[in-house]
Hints:
It contains three helices and no strands. By secondary structure, the chain is mainly alpha-helical. Belongs to the cytochrome c oxidase subunit 6c family.
Amino acid sequence: MSAALLPKPQMRGLLARRMKFHLLGAFLVSMGSAVLYKFGVAEPRKQAYADFYRNYDPMKDFEAMKAAGVLESTQCKC
């Protein structure tokens, strides 16, 4: 009598049904993490490089390194 009250378990297609669910979840998580990385890390990094090189003077930096003695191949006219 108690066997008639319990629903029958699904035996066919269980793996396929669960696989669809987990593949969809994995896809959504990976796309979400890619978007978060792009806007949380890559874009601020790109902006920081653009800000740095906007006002960067390589000759001024070269002269500062030459005066500090970092570059041994140049003569220091101090």
